[in-house]
Amino acid sequence: MVIVISKEYKIAGDPVPLARPRASLTCKMWDAQKQVKLARGLQLRNQHGDLPFFNGPLHIDATFYFEPPKKKDLGSLHVYKPDLSNLVKFLEDIATGVLYKDDCLIASTSAKKCYADQAATVFTIKQLT
Hints:
The structure is a single chain. This protein is α+β, with helices and mostly antiparallel strands. 21% of the residues lie in helices and 33% in strands. It is globular and about 45 Å long.
């Protein structure tokens, strides 16, 4: 496996998990995270600039940093909600149409949740051959 292109991105603020679509009593569906997705997507677009889309297969290596609670002395890994899989899904969704055409191009991922002084999402996309 050879890495052709690799780029790191950082999204400031608390990592956001993907929420399920909401439904009204009349069975109308809507995305409750639309504004959050737009804001985070703009952060990615600004970092990516005029670079072309990544082409598959892709690998994403993500680290989600959370600020530690002030009352507890915890280890370095975050083992509480939100779920890691939902954090990765949100990241894949906001990068679709910004960094790559479709998230089906992602062939592999590695991710972890950690504590840090500042909350952020840091990830690297690698285009593989």
